[in-house]
Design brief:
The protein is an alpha+beta fold. It folds into 2 domains: 390 residues, TolB, C-terminal domain (Neuraminidase); 130 residues. 23% of the residues lie in helices and 28% in strands. It contains 15 helices and 28 strands. The strands form 8 sheets. The chain has a 5-stranded mixed β-sheet. Strands 3-28-27-26 form a 4-stranded antiparallel β-sheet, with helices on one face. Helix 7 runs parallel beside helix 9.
Length: 598
Amino acid sequence: MRFALIALCIATGFVVPDVTIAQEGRITIPRRQAKPPGPPLSPKVALAKMQVPEGFHVELVAAEPDIMNPVAMCFDERGRIWVTESFEYPRHEPGPGRDRIKILEDTDGDGRFETVKIFAEGLNIPSGIAVGHGGVWVANAPDILFMQDTDGDDRADKSEVVVTGFGRRDTHELPNALTWGPDGALYGLNGVFNPCRVEQNGKVFEFTCAMFRIDPKTREFSLFCEGTSNPWGIAFDPEGSAFISACVIDHLWHLTETGYYHRQGGPYPEHTWKIESIVDHKHQMAAYCGITYFDSEAYPAEYRDLLMMGNIHGNCINVDRLHRRGSTYHATGEPDFLSADDVWFMPVAQKVGPDGCFYVLDWYDRYHCYQDASADPEGVDRGHGRLYRVVHSATGRPEPVTLAGAAPEQLVDYLGHSNVHVRQTAQRLLSESGCNGVTEQLQSLVTNPDQPTNVRYGALWSLIGGDALTPEFATQLLASDSATVQAWAIRAIGEQHPSSESAVKAALGLLPEAKPDVLLQLAIAIGKFEKIDKLARWVDVLVAAKEDELIPHIVWQNLYPHVDIENFEAFLTLVESVDLASAPGLAEVVQRVPALLQ
């Protein structure tokens, strides 16, 4: 089956209209292209054709042969770049392959990453990478691997299968976008036409399109939410909300724990009340790869606090701006940040670097989609790959900030840095250390209303990720002046302290005056809290939510497994005294409940 009329593309980056095939079997006009792509451009010529806003210019960081067929990338605390390469694509069979992981380092500070080392070989389409907790996390379906260099020679000599069971049916939809979340967990994505079955500790997870997460300390796997299409990129905003880019359907989604979102295809579980995207606009042809939240003083203010994502059919970088809408968001389009004017340009990953500049990883290939690659695997380019950096002329390339070897007290100071990459790296390192020696300092930052929000949130997330947030301190935070702090305290209580009666009671005590963010986390945490009347509390949330568009969906996804013939009358009793006209979300839920009993 050809998985949906051009069921997307993405992953390791690739382009998609009707296909014209020459007599020898070579595709002359790939999908979504109007004419033959022509020969590849040299890095120098490709740079000269790129268009960026006035005041910016693009620099080449690395190119073939140093990197070829690059799929995913990340920075470590030393400022080095880790890149996965795939020569096996579009191979479906699991098992050892020719693919590898490289470490790129700029040893002389000139901005070119001229030292290249091979960290690992023998992989098979490594589609995601993250560095942390003493090793390297790699999506290499069917596995998520944890690889370590135990003797300091920058070569992996130890490999652990953390979880297994990811599919390889569609190699554009493999597990991808491994990204550290604010809570210290490792998040990733999987696509709609790539069925998976992960078994762990007696639990079975069967899923297709989904966001998953892994606790790096316990290795526990869980599904954060499900839905969308072929998602390929995760970004977190300054309040810790998760956003992804996706293909074919709408391009931008705000993902919330336990939510179930619109699917490109395939059946929904029974009783699903799906959630839609946060956009009503479109960019060029719908094939997205990668996303990052850009915030750095290396760029002027108008280019900060934006979501930037790769468009592999448009051969450009699209931009969206977020606006709060109750407990969720609405996004509006901004002008493109970069246009390559080169059909081979395929931006598969984007990152903010230690210098605060925007980095773009380019797979660089004539074929953008799996249909072309599968029809002509020999035509897939195997010899190109580029990494670019966009620099603003007024600031130049700022001095990179590296955190390797920084003392915990220094890491705390970096939580307020202007570069989002530095803030997030400092927070990750604090979480990895368990906030050793700085717990009280972090607590004082969280509770100080005079501190910048970045500092307060980063301190709180460090405590959560470091398992250093006690139920007593979490309870104290419920009285915070910040709704975001309250919301994260509730989330932490649900995750880490669901049996603490005092903490749970205090969290529920925020009803009915809680702000939308707080109500959203209560809707999720109520399902985890122990020894409470869950149905009654979900009704309270729906009454307090009034006309919020997201919260009723989240309540429903958590509530409906708890309603059966035995407590149906009790549920009706809970709502009969409520004016449903003032609580439209509750009214919708009430209408859906009878279907559960059929």
